[in-house]
Amino acid sequence: MRTLIKLLIALPLLAHPVAAQDIFQPLQDMVDELTNPPPRPPRTPAPKAPVAVAPEAPPVPRPRPPSLPDVPVVEAPAVPDAAEEAVDEQAVEEPVEPEVEAKPEVEAKPERVYQVACPAVIQGLVEAEMAPPLSEGICGEQSPLVVTGVLSKGRMVPLSSPVTTNCQMASALPDWVETVDGYAETMLESRLAQVDTGTSYMCRNRYSAENGFTSEHGFANAVDVTGFTLEDGRSIGVEGDWMPAAEPEGRLLRLAHDAACGDFMTVLGPEANAEHHDHLHLDMGCHGQSCTTRICE
Ligand SMILES: [Zn+2]
């Protein structure tokens, strides 16, 4: 095989001996390459190893990744830790708030208003509605009533304005109003059309003084009556009709005052002091150790 190739190459060289060396050398190299394939393998790995490729990738990308992770790795743990702590704190605070809010709700629900019924209302002796408890410092009443009318002789006599009072006062009113109603019908030939009322519940001291005992008005235990209105339209007021005492209107007011002394524990009128020149003060206050003493002035 080699001999045949050499002959094919040598034939043209015989005709042109001068250029034989220039042509023969490259051909010889080709022949060597074709005939000696083994030595080539070492050449192929050399180009495959183009160190240029390997060094390009490692120097540029490698240093960057390590630098990037190094920074975030140090900062990342610090931030996430704080964030986690913050989240943990928030997670703890959030459940605590609802628990605190839930507690008052639970405590508010069991709060129940305990009040007592008033027999005078149940029996229809007075027209009244139960009101929420009153609480104002030392003043107050757990089961106040707003009374708007009093039964007398089979009908309800209205009050000029609703009075806020307790059951004791409400229970004492019917008998007294019916007595006054009888006096008016007998002496003035006209029944009561209305009871004119003044102050009822009011948290203050006696006579509105800065110091002293708290008035029974502060316990919804007193009612002031300023006069009466008759069915015939006449208006009889303590302020204008207490005097002269001999007149029918004056007599009615005095009978009303005296009758009250049998139904209430305290009755104060114009004869008591100047503070009561225009009304009758009625209350169920306790006087004496056994609460049996009455004050009628
Ligand atoms: Zn009074």
Describe this structure in words.
The protein is α+β, with helices and mostly antiparallel strands. 43% of the residues lie in helices and 19% in strands. It folds into three domains: 48 residues, no CATH class; 55 residues; 177 residues, no CATH class. Strands 6, 7, 8, 9, 10 and 11 form a six-stranded mixed beta sheet that branches. The longest helix is centred in the first third of the chain and has 45 residues. It starts with a helix and ends with a strand. The site of zinc ion has 5 residues, from strand 7.
Bound molecules: zinc ion
Shape type: elongated
Strand content: 15-25%
Proportion of residues in helical segments:
40-55%
Largest sheet: 6 strands, mixed
Could you spell the SSE succession in H and E letters?
HHHHHHEEEEEHEEEHHEEE
Overall number of strands: 11
Would you tell me the structural class of the helices and strands? alpha+beta
Weakly predicted, low-confidence segments: 7-20, 44-92
What is the count of DSSP helices, taking H or I runs of 4+ residues? Answer: 9
Counted up, domains total 3
User: Radius of gyration in whole Å, from Cα?
Assistant: 58 Å
What is the CA–CA distance across the termini? 161 Å
What value does the average pLDDT take?
79
